[in-house]
Q: What sequence folds into this?
């Protein structure tokens, strides 16, 4: 029999704590595959956020650190500046990166830190019970926007990619999703590219935003959640590469 | 050299690999000095976007096994408390210098000792301690940098160097030499990439039942070792003293002059100067309280260290306090007057003041 698919080495063989249909697991696998395909496991250091993915080090078999809520880009800066030969990535949710850690991500990009950021936008604070995130779309019902989010008073959805793309220090910014296999493949390519840039010493920050399902707090079935990303979420967060950086061969 | 520059150069001599900081008066000389000297040495300097970021950059660099530090003054140190709590939970070594200024709030930029509680109690959340050093001269400030890094590495703790605006700005001759270093344990916990070994994880989240409690007991055991082994304090003429003045940092220098003058007047006065504020010289002060004598604590605050003095004296003797707050500094004469009031019987004082 021919093996057509296996678990990649950097993804640990263990049960997951994520809810059924959660997007975090998919993103973890894509990161692990990118690391293994680039052969950088031995020199990669990952940063886990505060959020549902706080235990990312239980799944990703690289050196990892867990940091204070939102501070990953600052921690990453401390690591990369002192270890320019290492590959440093942060994995952050939308509460972590777009609410409490907005200053840190903007300034890491602004300083052109050579980092790879995987930004999981699931439009809610998953870990604390599905409250509004800066990325919650207008009209979306969450634990803290029970009548649906209204722009005035609760704010407009924060478009991080658009915000970062204008900074010269951000060199590669792409928004992807995982709502179907084709999108998963695109996301994989983007994540791998974001690592590749760092491996090749490209001078700036790379960020891949992943529109990711949280069926639990969207109160949807996993299938419905995927459909909601495609039909609804992408209206506020259009997919695509906002800023590209090609490596000269 | 001013104290700020002296401590910066001393940190470089002590082998600091990376400095992260955000400007704030009265310690701006450090950031400026480091921005020039660290790159000259091929080491890392980053002016961060905030103290929140600075302490987290320290967190990152420390996790990879590097010697790293940040410096700030009171309001900035408040912002760092989250980071210090995380450093403590993750058992990462770090050196934090606080060149204290007047508070609360934005306060002022004058020298103060108002952050003693924050430094010695741990201003962040959770059951943790930071080793706290309270130097009282530019020389001592410089000398305590290599000690701070060694202590941080040996115990995997945050070491706070508690200076004040006076010490930071003051010019004094200073000898910067390489002091012999401690033999330190290898940093096999550091994140260096998992090549050829299992992954290392630096974390402070422990969800399993009882696991965090275990960690806390482990931390406490470590803190007990620090209390047992690392107390430093200085005493002067305590043996026959009827009054012992306790002070640290720049206040201790004022006290020294006041005590000398009191001796000249025939008052049996002495002083105790804690150099480590945590661990506090509890035993030394308790021993001094065996004899019946008065303790006077002098601080540039409304009375913070005096609580530790009271705990140390444990009710064996009266403990009084004299302090100036909000960036004001007690004068030698004010302290001397307090010493007189507490030692010379009231009737004689009257006669004296009539003269
Ligand atoms: C300083 C601080 N404030 C608040 C929290 C509580 N908290 C934990 S996770 C979280 C939000 C996480 O949301 P997100 O980053 O979107 O991650 P998700 O769980 O959705 O993947 C919050 C507010 C915290 N841990 N620390
Ligand atoms: S709450 Fe949402 S983000 Fe968190 S694990 Fe469950 S599905 Fe995933
Ligand atoms: Mg989220």
A:
């Amino acid at each position: 029999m021919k093996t057509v698919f296996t678990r990649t080495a950097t993804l640990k063989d263990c049960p997951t704590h994520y809810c059924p249909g959660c997007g975090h697991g998919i993103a973890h696998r894509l990161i692990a595959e990118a690391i293994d395909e680039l052969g950088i496991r031995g020199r990669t250091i990952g940063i886990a956020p505060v959020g549902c993915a706080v235990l990312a080090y239980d799944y990703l078999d690289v050196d990892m650190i867990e940091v204070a809520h939102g501070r990953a880009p600052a921690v990453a800066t401390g690591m990369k500046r002192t270890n320019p030969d290492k590959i440093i990535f942060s994995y952050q949710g939308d509460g972590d990166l777009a609410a409490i850690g907005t200053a840190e991500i903007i300034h890491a990009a602004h300083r052109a830190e050579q980092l790879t950021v995987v930004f999981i936008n699931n439009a809610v604070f998953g870990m604390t019970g599905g409250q509004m995130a800066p990325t919650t779309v207008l009209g979306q019902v969450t634990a803290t926007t029970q009548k649906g989010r209204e722009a005035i008073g609760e704010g407009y959805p924060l478009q991080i990619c658009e915000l970062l793309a204008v900074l010269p220090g951000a060199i590669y910014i792409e928004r992807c999703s995982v709502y179907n296999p084709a999108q998963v493949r695109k996301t994989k390519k983007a994540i791998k590219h974001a690592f590749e840039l760092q491996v090749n010493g490209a001078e700036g920050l790379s960020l891949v935003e992943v529109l990711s399902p949280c069926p639990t707090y969207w109160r949807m079935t996993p299938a419905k959640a995927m459909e909601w990303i495609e039909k609804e979420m992408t209206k506020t967060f259009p997919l695509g590469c906002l800023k590209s950086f090609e490596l000269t061969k | 050299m001013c104290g700020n520059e002296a401590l910066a150069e001393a940190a470089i001599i002590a082998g600091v690999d990376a400095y992260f900081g955000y400007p704030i008066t009265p310690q701006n000389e450090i950031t400026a000095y480091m921005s020039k000297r660290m790159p000259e040495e091929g080491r890392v300097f980053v002016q961060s976007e905030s103290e929140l970021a600075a302490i987290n950059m320290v967190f990152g660099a420390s996790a990879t096994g590097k010697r790293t530090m940040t410096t700030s003054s009171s309001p900035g140190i408040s912002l760092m408390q989250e980071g210090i709590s995380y450093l403590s939970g993750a058992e990462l070594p770090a050196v934090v210098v606080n060149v204290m200024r007047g508070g609360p709030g934005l306060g002022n930029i004058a020298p103060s000792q108002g952050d003693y509680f924050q430094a010695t109690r741990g201003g962040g959340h959770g059951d943790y301690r930071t080793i706290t050093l309270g130097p009282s001269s530019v020389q001592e400030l410089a000398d305590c940098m290599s000690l701070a890094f060694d202590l941080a590495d040996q115990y995997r703790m945050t070491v706070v160097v508690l200076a004040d605006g006076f010490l930071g700005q003051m010019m004094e001759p200073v000898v910067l030499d390489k002091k012999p270093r401690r033999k330190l344990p290898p940093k096999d916990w550091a994140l260096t990439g998992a090549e050829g070994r299992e992954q290392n994880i630096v974390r402070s989240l422990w969800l399993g039942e009882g696991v965090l409690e275990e960690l806390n007991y482990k931390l406490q055991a470590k803190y007990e070792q620090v209390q047992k082994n690392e107390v430093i304090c200085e005493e002067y003429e305590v043996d026959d003293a009827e009054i012992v003045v306790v002070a640290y940092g720049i206040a201790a220098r004022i006290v020294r002059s006041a005590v000398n003058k009191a001796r000249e007047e025939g008052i049996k006065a002495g002083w105790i100067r804690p150099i480590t504020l945590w661990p506090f010289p509890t035993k030394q002060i308790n021993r001094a309280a065996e004899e019946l004598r008065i303790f006077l604590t002098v601080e540039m605050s409304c009375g913070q260290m005096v609580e530790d003095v009271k705990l140390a004296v444990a009710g064996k003797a009266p403990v009084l306090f004299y302090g100036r707050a909000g960036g004001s500094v007690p004068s030698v004469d004010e302290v001397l007057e307090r010493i007189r009031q507490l030692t010379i019987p009231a009737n004689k004082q009257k006669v004296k003041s009539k003269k």
